Amino acid sequence: MRVLHVHSGNLYGGVETMLTTLARRRDACPGMEPHFALCFEGRLSEELAAHGAQVHQLPNVRVSRPATVLRARRALASLLRDERFEVVICHSAWSHAVFAGVVRAAGLPLAFWSHDAATGAHWLERWARRTPPDLAVCNSVYTARALRTFFPTARAEVVYCPLDLPDLAPHRTPESRAAVRAELDTTADAAVIIQVSRMEECKGHSLHLRALSSLIEVEGWVCWMVGGGQRPRERAYEERLKAEAARLGLTNRLRFTGQRRDVPRLLAAADIYSQPNTAPESFGLTFVEAMHAGLPVVTTAIGGAREIVDDSCGLLVPPDDPAALAAQLRRLLDDEPSRTRFKDSGPARALALCAAGLNMKRLCGVLEGVVEG
Prior knowledge:
By secondary structure, the protein is of the alpha/beta class. It has helices at residues 14-24, 43-50, 66-82, 92-105, 123-128, 141-147, 174-183, 205-213, 232-247, 263-268, 285-292, 305-308, 322-334, 336-354, 356-372, and strands spanning 2-7, 33-38, 54-57, 87-91, 110-114, 135-138, 156-158, 191-196, 221-226, 254-258, 272-275, 297-300, 314-317. It has two domains: 2-163 and 355-372, Rossmann fold (3-Layer(aba) Sandwich); 169-354, Glycogen Phosphorylase B (Rossmann fold), CATH 3.40.50.
């Protein structure tokens, strides 16, 4: 079954990590052959190509420029005429809004992969809902529930994101851990709190900083903020965070690392994962990656995180409550045996949720159902 994944491709985050997994681990599900159509070249197209996936480059699209939309639609229509695909998946509202009509006109089964909790209120979602899909693949139960207001008649199937969980043994050696910490100006005996996320306000960076500011008197911890702005507004947000950290007296305790391609290596050298989202997240692959690395996860009890984090692998705190967040971080900083307990149970939880082979076969099954239908 040849599956065409249609996506923008200009950013890199959880969705792109999942798409890269589909390319890298395609041997785990030989019955599903993934192809990719992207509007922008960048890190995603480079990584897909490096793993031997077929990447079809569409023209760049700027929705504010209708001519670019028409050119990209014509290019996709030509691709669908020239190549054989059994099903086409549009990832997120942007891709579905721009390209779903082309897929429908080609007479192919159309799937929409819902990576966000859509409400149908955003203008992109209103545009996308003009073309209901034959199938909606949802990355969590939370996302599936939200989909009812977006595509109320679409058949919805929950498939947790396939994730290629790497072998971390080479990064767990004392030498590797010491090397990472030296790069980030962190002593070998420091307790490292890490957050890995896009530079977006909903990821809770500011709330995180306010909680950390109440722990300044606690000795021996450092926080790594991993991720950098990819768009102008994200870069401006990052600069505001650095200014806020300076006002709170946290400059010496924080390391803003920018974009990194060695996240597993950083996670293996850290001790606690903290990301207090201020808005519901549809799933949260970084939580799974952190659990796989054996880190206790601290996050807010909203959205898809409630399906990921339980008391075997982390701690949930009320949303927008810096005092509660600080209390749980203090607890983990003071109690190394608790951190060890989470370290033992986290990897199994990560594997149960997002094992690449298991979830790719689940995806293949639901796609076969819509193709046969």
